[in-house]
Write a structure and sequence with these properties.
Chain A: It is found in: Endoplasmic reticulum membrane. The complex is a heterodimer. By secondary structure, chain A is mainly α. Chain A is built from eight helices and two strands; from the N terminus they run ααααααβααβ. Chain A has one domain. Helices cover 0% and strands 0% of the residues of chain B.
């Protein structure tokens, strides 16, 4: 474990709970893409299948459980409890255009052609594009609530910190996983436009609004 | 070195 990965995981945890609290407190999921949340739930479920077979540490197992439970809870709040506030008119990204190609790629490009490894690879590829429905929804509505932009900033920062973690691990542990690094770069690059808007607007107390 | 098969990250 290193500081980049620890801060990254905590940033990821913060993002998930900021969103969960926003929906729970405001009793509304306006401006939030349910499709992205479904993709994130799929990412965690396919990635953490080794939860019971491969014990790494208490921290690792605990975080996996928290990530799965909180993301499933978010999907439940959005599609069942506060379904009336779900903005399906703006959450129209065709996620099958993400899941199918990513599924195919996981079969073609992976470290080991075994079910667990292919599912892990699928999860890594899917996570890199899972935020697209959310970013697409913001581009359609033209703006995002400030709390939603904080959620996105924390979520985008987590994988950027993981990139630093992989640089650290490469030099100090000789650890390198090309699939995770390439997907992590794609994932972080997708946030660049948002990071620019967040830093130039939200940081100065303005609302995040995309140029019309 | 620890190869990618070691899935010790979240």
């Amino acid at each position: 474990m290193n500081i980049f990965r620890l801060v990254g995981d905590l940033s990821h945890l913060l993002a998930i709970f900021v969103l969960l609290l926003k929906i729970w407190k405001s009793r509304s999921c306006a401006g939030v893409s349910g499709k992205s949340q479904i993709l994130f739930a799929l990412v965690f479920i396919t990635r953490y299948l080794d939860l019971f077979t491969n014990f790494i540490s208490v921290y690792n197992s605990l975080m996996k459980v928290i990530f799965i439970a909180s993301t499933v809870a978010t999907v439940y709040l959005m599609y069942i409890k506060f379904k009336a506030t779900y903005d399906s008119n703006h959450d129209t990204f065709r996620i099958e255009f993400l899941v199918v190609p990513v599924g195919g790629l996981a079969f073609l490009v992976n470290h080991d052609f075994t079910p667990l490894e292919i599912l892990w690879t699928f999860s890594i590829y899917l996570e890199s594009v899972a935020i697209l429905p959310q970013l697409f929804m913001i581009s359609k509505t033209g703006e995002a609530e400030t709390i939603t932009s904080h959620y996105l900033f924390a979520l985008g920062s987590y994988r950027a910190l993981y990139l630093l973690n992989w640089i650290y691990r490469y030099y100090f542990e000789g650890y390198f996983d090309l699939i995770a690094v390439v997907a992590g770069c794609v994932q972080t690059i997708l946030y660049c436009d948002f990071f620019y808007l967040y830093i130039t607007k939200v940081m100065w107390g303005k609302k995040l609004s995309l140029p019309a | 070195p620890a190869g990618p098969s070691v899935k010790d990250e979240l």
